[in-house]
Amino acid sequence: MDTGNIKVVCYSPDFRGVQARRRVRAGERVITARREFLVTVPRIVESSELAKKVVECGVKLDYTFATALACMIYEAKSNPKPWWQPYIESFPESADTFPYFFSEKEKEYLRGTIWESSMKSEMEESLREYNEICDRLPEFKEMTSETYLKLTTLVCSRYFGAESLPDQKLAVPVIDMFNYYVDKAGQTSWHYYPEENAFAVTAVKDIRWGDVIALNYGAKPNGRYLLYYGFIPDNNTYMYIYIDPVISDSDPLLKEKQELLGYANGEKFLYSKEFYCDWSAYFEENDTVMSACRFAVYAEDVARLRSHLEKFDMSERYKSFRLPPLSAENEVAALELLKKIIVEKAKKYPNTLEEDETILETQKDLTLNARNALTVRIGELRAHAKIIEFADEMIKLLKSPENAKGEIEKMDKWYVEYAKRCLLPLLTQP
């Protein structure tokens, strides 16, 4: 591997990064890892006896790549292979900043968030997988369930995607030590080149000597960063909340709606979708949520509803249909349902937004893990407040349409795209 452009820097025992050893111009490759340095499932299984046994034992693995590489890393303690060495040397020792390994007191600061339940389900799945492997391969018990969770967690935080490879994943030594870059425009890009069987990082813009070289991990909410990468980026404003509309038991059209959805067992749940605090970038995703809310509260002609749904495959178990704004009355009811869902979610949190913000500001003895977890919770509570503000403002416009057009034209809010594309047509209907 040609590392002439970079050098690895240890900022602390648990924090490393990569800096430029010389100037790298835009369009120039920062580093290229050839075939012999790429860690893939076939290479792992060929050389790791433990990984081969686990992959072939018949257990349905959540992430075959993560399990195989975890086995290789564990086996390297007693029987390392020469080609493993570059990756083993760059693999971290600690996973203490991942929520799975927080103290119980630190985990409390995640209480109420969607990531608290995600963490619990991930841990349950890891334990199930571990126990099933042990049932098939008793010798696997030499690796504890906590070690298995730790190794697979670290692996999942460091692999790259490559659609042309088996399992569509690979790991690359040194490159997996590039830290997060906050600039949305990007400093570098990475790509797997199947024709070269190589993985490379390329400079998107000029990089000066001594600059920290990093990768952009993509747009993700703080909770996802914390759970799957063990850190939170500075000033991350990307946020979404899962919205899960349900048809009311008292809905006079309940049976007709269930028939339209193909529900045969009295189901009322539509689907759980992300609602983003940015309409301009995620209009279609947010309108899918609003579509479900429109459907859930619809109280007019069923034939009209049926005609809108005819173009969608309603036989799918998890339906994702698009229902346009139907009337001012229906849109008000849909917005009220959205607000109600958010208000109910907020009841699961132990504190208000103001209380959590005060804790973060005044309690200087919080550990880094506790501070990160609390930051995740505050982000969700702020998102709740933004969505409630959105619903209230849009309901106000729909109920007082006289000056609505002028208000929308001068609006400078994150939801202005919705107001223009969804509300204006309703407000200007004859």
Tell me about this structure.
This protein is an alpha+beta fold and 430 residues long. Helix content is 44%, strand content 11%. The longest helix has 32 residues.
Structure keywords:
three-stranded antiparallel sheet, 16 helices, 11 strands, 11% strand, globular
Largest sheet entry: 4 strands, mixed
User: For the terminal residues, how far apart are their CA atoms?
Assistant: 68 Å
Strand content: 5-15%
Succession of helices and strands: EEEHHHHHHHEEEEEEHEHEHHHHHHH
Q: Compute the average pLDDT.
A: 90
Structural class: alpha+beta
* Number of E-state strands: 11
Name the helicity range: 40-55%
The number of helical segments is 16
| Low-pLDDT runs | none
Overall geometry comes to globular
Strand order of the largest sheet: 1-2-9-6
Radius of gyration, Cα only, in angstroms? Answer: 25 Å
Fold topology:
Blueprint: E1 6-12, E2 15-20, E3 29-33, H1 41-47, H2 49-55, H3 64-75, H4 85-90, H5 104-107, H6 114-136, H7 145-156, E4 160-161, E5 169-170, E6 179-180, E7 188-193, E8 198-203, E9 212-215, H8 222-229, E10 240-243, H9 254-261, E11 273-276, H10 283-297, H11 302-309, H12 328-346, H13 353-362, H14 368-399, H15 404-409, H16 416-427
Parallel strand pairs: 6-9
Antiparallel strand pairs: 1-2, 2-9, 3-8, 4-5, 7-8, 10-11
Helix pairs in contact: 1-2, 1-3, 2-3, 3-7, 10-12, 12-14, 13-14
